[in-house]
Amino acid sequence: KSGELSLAIEIPPDFGQKLHKGENVQIGAWIDGSMPSRAETIEGYVEGIHLTWLLEQASQMSTTTSTSLIDVQSRYLYNPDIKSLVAIVPAVIPMLLLMIPALLTSLAVVREKELGSIINLYVTPVSKLEFLLGKQVPYILTSFVSFILLVLMAVYFFKVPLKGDVFAFAIIALLFVTFSTSFGLLASVFTNSQIAAILLTTIGTMVPAVQFAGMITPVSALEGAGKIIGEMHPISYFLLASRGIFSKGLGFGSLDFAVYAIAISIPITLWLSVALLKKQER
């Protein structure tokens, strides 16, 4: 359920003894089917290992009676029918909640820089944090409404069953949209034009979401800088939580790692935004 294992091999008791006697022996291969493409690849490896073992045994024995009685039974957990929608729809929700709120928020401050209305910040007693939170809160609320609509579409339009804790999903999503809007504020503070803010936000959201978060390739299979980004970026954890809640019926007890990882990222991005925002005219 935690995603640490993608394959579990179940070998019955007295396997060697039954094999030597020529009795029928079955080995169970339990595969995590929440990611169909990876599950089918794993099943191919299992079948290849089984075939290789059979050939080795056949070459060592004068008769292949015992080897022909060994059967490997593969079963998919959490997605028995290997439907792609069960994996794709829960993965699209985190990607949209990262990209769109960040893009909208990325224009909040830089627009005022271009229009010159940022001077209002310089002459008022409002702190930088208060100014940024005032820009961020409306986007958090609208993004959370978007999350509710996305979940309703997933369940009623795409017919993907939601098996896990809905309340836990909502809390994690609220934390995540707070992070995504914080990242948009960081891009808005860092740049001086709307085009640059949009470009920076697009690169900073789409690339990690598609390439390094585990949407297609598991983070554990990445190497180098890609693996570091995948292990550090909050979308990797929200993606695991989304798939786990939809397919595996997970709740708070199994998703505390996602809550902590996403929650830690929020003050970091906000602190960087406050540090880069100058409360004086440049």
Radius of gyration: 25 Å
Residue share in helix: 55-70%
Q: Strand-residue fraction?
A: 5-15%
From the N-terminal CA to the C-terminal CA, the straight-line distance is 52 Å
Q: Strands across the major sheet, in which order?
A: 1-2-3
Number of helices: 11
| Major sheet description | 3 strands, mixed
Mean pLDDT: 85
Would you count the extended β strands for me?
A: 3
Give the overall form: elongated
Helix/strand structural class: mainly alpha
Which segments are poorly predicted (pLDDT under 50) over 5 or more consecutive residues? 63-68
Order of helices and strands: EHEHEHHHHHHHHH
Can you walk through the features of this model?
The protein is mostly helical and 282 residues long. A three-stranded mixed sheet has the order 1-2-3. The chain starts with 6 loop residues before the first strand and ends in a 6-residue tail after the last helix.
List keywords for this structure.
mainly alpha; three-stranded mixed beta sheet; 282 residues; 3 strands
Topology record:
Layout: E1 7-10, H1 15-21, E2 25-32, H2 36-60, E3 70-77, H3 84-105, H4 110-115, H5 119-123, H6 128-157, H7 166-190, H8 194-212, H9 224-232, H10 234-248, H11 252-276
Parallel strand pairs: 2-3
Antiparallel strand pairs: 1-2
